[in-house]
Amino acid sequence: MKFFFAKIFLLFIFIGFSNASENIRFININYIINNSEVGKNLNKIIESKSKKITSELGDLGKKIENKKDKIISQKNILKKEEYEKLLKSYDEEVKKYNDIRKKKNEDFNKFRINSQKKILETLNPIITAFLKKESVQILLQKEQILFGDKKLDITQEILKVFNDKHKKIKFD
Q1: Is 13 a domain residue?
Q2: Running DSSP on this structure, what letter comes out for residue 170?
Q3: Which of 34, 38, 134, 151 is the most buried (most CB within 10 A)?
Q4: What pTM does this model have?
Q5: In a domain? residue 7
Q6: Is 128 within a domain?
């Protein structure tokens, strides 16, 4: 008896979905973010910032490593107090380096997230207008769909409209 009711329940669900299928679309937001003119510009900015941070941290790391090597080479030459003083100074520099690295990584991640959020905020009215114009009732994220008719994918249409309306966005 339970099996019978489960079949009837699923039948009604599928009938409901089949009637509403014309009002369902899906979109790949990540594709739009990465392949729009604005998104490509953001990716270049992110890449250059990442290289700059890596270079700066690499230079600082090399200086600290050189200082460590110098201290180790002087271990047998220096008095115990002087050696411990140098070790303490080295430990402080390592701590500062780790703090700088953490801060730079946090700032970089915050910039990346806020920039992508800014793109999404700019993209949102375009998607909303499209949904109203086309009378779309449900919009799904493409990554969550296993199978779907390519006719229901509106990613390229939204990308074209987004590129036409927004060539550049200023990222802080």
Answers
A1: no
A2: -
A3: 38
A4: 0.73
A5: no
A6: yes
Is 33 within the bounds of a domain?
A: yes
Tokens representing 64? 């600290």
Structural domain boundaries enclosing 43: 20-165
Tens digits of per-residue pLDDT, 39-49? Answer: 999 999 999 99
| Token digits of residue 2 | 């339970």
> From the DSSP assignment, how many helices (H) and strands (E) are in the chain?
5, 2
Tokens of 43: 């990716």
Looking at every residue in the chain, the average pLDDT score rounds to 86
Q: How many domains does the chain have?
A: 1
Residue 94 to residues 14, 70, 83, 85, 86, Cα–Cα distance (Å): 62, 15, 16, 14, 12
Chain-centre distance for alpha carbon 76: 50
DSSP state of 78: S
Separation between Cα atoms, residue 61 and residue 37, nearest integer Å: 36
